[in-house]
Amino acid sequence: MNQTAHLFDIARVSTTASPSCLAHYPGQNGWKCIYGQYALPFVRSSYLLHSYLYDQFQLSGNLAIPFVAWPHTAQQLHYTETFRNLTTTIARTLQNPTQVLSPGQGPVSLSGKEEKRAPVSKKEEKVGARHSTAPSQTRSALLAACYAHCATEDSRWTDIHVDGISLDAAVTRWWQSLGQEGCVETGDCVSVLTSAPDLDVQEGSSSFVLLDNCTGFNCGEGCPQPPA
User: Fold this and answer.
1) What is the spatial distance between Cα 4 and Cα 93, in angstroms, rounded to a whole number?
2) Neighbour tally for 62: CB within 10 Å
3) How confident is the model at residue 180 (pLDDT cuts 50, 70, 90)?
4) How distant, in Å, are the alpha carbons of 54, 87, 118, 182 from that of 152?
5) How far apart are CA 20 and CA 120, in angstroms?
6) Within 13 Å and on the Cβ side, how many CA atoms surround 217?
7) Predicted structure pTM score
């Protein structure tokens, strides 16, 4: 979070971030408008959210261990489960298009306490409703229970699966949900999810949420393993 706040100032993000978000998080809280869990309610475009339930970059930083190291002590592993549970809570809100972290809700921090916020004005409520319930917006997600960070630089793009679906396949499905069929017709990509019954597609929309529910640290299918 500190890194995000510094980037917000250095890159002058206030000139490009959502005006509605900046109005909701004024002054020193403006950095939240480029931090996923706070910015999502103000995203009006369709999106596919991808993350790991044990994000290696954030957890290694929070635990003050080298990026290449793996959590192993009981205290560290307990922290990773707390992190996973909170990430899961946020991801599950995507399964209900009318409850995508609306600006009136307070995301829970790693302390387990809901953040204190100023009362939401009627104007902000209207803005939040408009941003979080747009019927044409496709909000989809794939979150694997892996201790990892990147996905497109190696075979993780195809090897890691949630409910049998890889990120490669999920991107194809999401792209098609936007009506982008050209790549399938020309053979530039594979239509692997045109009629996939195992996708949790939200009723009345093209959105889907693939969320790992296996038990234990780094338990997902195809997750990278610690060095020997």
Assistant:
1) 23
2) 15
3) low
4) 17, 21, 39, 22
5) 12
6) 20
7) 0.72
Whole-angstrom CA distances from 159 to 104, 152, 162, 172 are 38, 11, 10, 15
**Bridge partners of 73?**
none
pLDDT category of residue 193 using cuts at 50, 70 and 90: very low
What confidence tens digit (pLDDT) does each residue in 127-144 have? Answer: 444 334 444 678 889 999
Mean pLDDT of the residues in the chain: 76
Q: Is the pLDDT of residue 2 over 90?
A: no
pLDDT at position 188 over 50: no
d(CA 105, CA 190): 39
The rounded distance, in Å, linking the Cα atoms of 148 and 127 is: 35
Q: Quickly tell me which residue has 């307070």 as its tokens.
A: 106
